[in-house]
Amino acid sequence: QATVGGPGRRDWSTWPRYEAAVLGFKEYWYPVAWSRKIGEKPVPVQVLGQKIMLKRDGGVVRALHDRCPHRGVPLSHKLSSQEFPGTWSCCYHGWTFDLETGVLVAAITDGPESPICGKVAVRTYPVREHIGLVWLWLGDGEPRPFEDDVPEELLDPAALVVGRITVRDGNWRFGAENGFDDGHAKWLHRNALWTKRVKMPVWSEMKVIRDGPWITRRKDKMHYQAEFPGLGSFPRKKWYKRREGNKTKVSLRLPGTLRVKYETWTHFEWWVPVTGEGHVYVQLATMNRGWWNNFRFWVYYRVWARWVFHGMFNDEDRLMVEVTDAPPERLYRPDVSLTEWRKLVEQEARYSPGEAGHD
Ligand code: FES
Questions:
Q1: CA 47 to centroid of ligand 1, rounded, Å
Q2: Is it the case that residue 9 has pLDDT exceeding 50?
Q3: Which one-letter DSSP state was computed for residue 38?
Q4: Same structural domain for residues 188 and 337?
Q5: Are residues 340 and 223 in the same domain?
Q6: What is the CATH number of the domain that holds 47?
Q7: Gap between the Cα atoms of 214 and 224, Å rounded
Q8: How many of the other CB atoms lie within 10 Å of CB of 82?
Q9: If you measure from the C-alpha of residue 95 to the centroid of ligand 1, how many angstroms do you get, rounded to a whole number?
Q10: What is the Å distance from ligand 1's center to 243 Cα?
Q11: Which residues contact 26 (CB under 8 A, 6 or more apart)?
């Protein structure tokens, strides 16, 4: 047990690093936006507490800290402009920054010989565009290899990737925990349209196992009917629940990436911290089985999975993530899914020196 600072937090914890990571872990690549949404006009985003301006320039996406060092005006303000190629000028007094390096290259209202030029810079962030998404590195050191943080199913540029990106309420950890939470899958979602024809188990004998960078829920035995002493049996039979539903493999890894493997395609989720109270919720579905299968999956996604799975089903999760209020908490047996995740974070999360709660 170690000491953890911060208002409103317990002064000791079994998971001090995890509890301190209100704004997540900086030393990872995060998906933050669809590439197609980033054009010449700046797009402000907030990630891990940092305000960032994304803008495409000469076909390349640039990311700048969204605050002019002169007087703190957002550089993404709609009155700001591009006056010289490869630069961006703040709308207030015309300070002009190189989009690639962030260095002040002109202070227009102080003339061409302005002595402040070259002495001030805004922070820029490494950017990657891959599979139609913009990925950001917010760490302090050199970026880690991109492949370290992107699941292998998404590394092949030929993979079909579809999905949704929305901003949601609730701390990112409630999202990650909910995604991997074994008990809720059987209860909260038991009447979801997405699982309409699937018999959900009442409970399962389950272990969490290590699987490369992932932890995975291994379902050893599923119980589709259970007798509760003095109460009766559960569930009552439903004629439309035909198939047994234990075909998926659910895994979680740092920095908060969920993978659900179906037989032919894979679903991913990220909860990218925005502030302590909200996150960017990234939902992806991917298939990589040749253009014809990919096309058929695209149609299936557009007419069904996008609405019923990424919409209605994951909205049930949203409702819980918004209202979860823990700790304090009293855990039960299926919560081994939560405690194994927290252990993984404690043992393996990368962090920057000086990051909250670390030495
Ligand atoms: Fe940006 Fe003055 S606040 S130039």
A1: 23
A2: no
A3: -
A4: yes
A5: yes
A6: 2.102.10.10
A7: 27
A8: 16
A9: 6
A10: 62
A11: 48, 138, 139, 140, 351, 352, 355
Domain range spanning residue 109?
Answer: 39-129
Lowest mean pLDDT among 28-42, 181-195, 315-329: 181-195
Is residue 22 assigned to a domain? Answer: no
Domain count, the chain: 2
Tell me the per-residue pLDDT of 274-305, one tens digit each, with 9 for 90 and over: 999 999 999 999 999 999 999 999 999 999 99
Quick: pLDDT tens for 75-133.
999 999 999 999 999 999 999 999 999 999 999 999 999 999 999 999 999 999 999 99
Q: Which residue among 90, 104, 110, 117 has the greatest number of ligand 1 atoms within 8 angstroms of its CB, and so is best to mutate?
A: 90
Residue 197 corresponds to which tokens in the numbers above? 């024809």
Pair of tokens at residue 330 = 């009293």
pLDDT > 90: percent of the chain: 80
**325 in the same domain as 196:** yes
Is residue 160 domain-shared with residue 281, that is, in the same domain? yes
Residue pair 70/90 in contact (Cβ under 8 Å)? The answer is yes
CATH, residue 337: 3.90.380.10
- CA of 73, closest atom in ligand 1: 3
